[in-house]
Amino acid sequence: MAIPVMKPLLGEEEALAVAETVRSGWVAQGPRVAAFEKAFAERVGAAHGVAVSNCTTGLHLCLHLLGVGPGDEVVVPSLSFIATANAVRYCGATPVFADIDPLTGNLTAETVAAAITPATKAIMIVHQGGVPADVKAIRAIAGDVPVVEDAACAAGSTLDGNPVGTGALLAAWSFHPRKLLTTGEGGMITTDDAEWATRLRRLREHGMSMSAADRHAAGGAVVESYVETAFNYRMTDIQAAMGLVQLGRLNGIIEQRRALAARYHELLAPLGLRAVTDPAHGTTNYQSFWVALPDGAPDLLVVLGKLAEAGVSARRGIMAAHMEPAYAGHPHAPLPGTEELATRSLILPLHHEITDADQKHIVGALADALGLVAS
């Protein structure tokens, strides 16, 4: 059987929490969502959490809240899952692709500065693969332009000694199964602004002046009003029940992933391959463990095919939106760092069931695929 590239850590506690929610009769957005919002916000150092259906809808709500619309530009990395750029298009605005540092996979102050124009309405940075971006430097160059953080992969990563999310203007998070903390699908927005949090909760629920849960709790005859055109981006209590259990596992998951990543670095060192690691300004949760292929290596698809033959389920490195058909013809500046990582990197398996023997086999198979000698 192939070694899978990822596997969520789920157990009996999650199953019991979901079953209890089902038995309660309240399965839509309700008290468990509220509890999960509070607990997650506290974990990432934010004042408020707003649960949503997924990170993509969270990014859309952040931009909508900031008034991003037709005629506006939003600086984004092309090197990210396509949802980052798509969220800009949902608002009718134009994504402007900035290049990344190939050592971290993230935007830098210099690459952002090169992409800012008078039409720039927001900057969306990504903590790619859990590697924290240098938010402080980017905020300094942004000036009055708001910075939104796509923290889809970054739960448990740190920045300047604090959890990623601490002090964020707006940050959006993902709980997809490929993330460390999962609710199946689902997402969260965090912010320190109470008024924004109130409006975001309204925006996720059709613009209703009072949520369904609040109407139920009121006990009497209550008629809601619809104060603005909005969306249906809610999370269910079933998902939140799982999320609360997962949140309790997060520290242990990060500790194990960092230990596995350290072992990968040890095994890869004799091959001279560059792999993802902590930046100077923070620590990564190793949501993904990517490796850059050396000069002269076979084509990425050839390497992935050889790994598959050896029973290793690897993946291409982080995608580049500007190289996908959906963005064909979309104008952009040269993106050499982006294209280097998008075409010359791959993601190795990393999850709680990976053993030392697995890692030796994975690195040995990679060495064989590249024509290198593993120690």
Automatic annotation (TrEMBL):
Needs which cofactor?
A: pyridoxal 5'-phosphate
Question: To which species is this protein native?
Answer: Actinokineospora terrae
Record has Methyltransferase as a keyword? no
What keywords is this UniProt entry annotated with?
Pyridoxal phosphate
Designated name of the protein = Perosamine synthetase
Residues modified as N6-(pyridoxal phosphate)lysine are 179
Tell me the domain of life: Bacteria
Cite the active-site annotation.
179
Q: Does the keyword Membrane apply?
A: no
The family classification in the record reads: Belongs to the DegT/DnrJ/EryC1 family.
**Gene Ontology terms, MF aspect:** pyridoxal phosphate binding; transaminase activity
Write down the PANTHER family for this protein, in alphabetical order.
DTDP-4-AMINO-4,6-DIDEOXYGALACTOSE TRANSAMINASE, TRANSAMINASE
GO BP field = polysaccharide biosynthetic process
Which Pfam families does the entry mention? DegT_DnrJ_EryC1
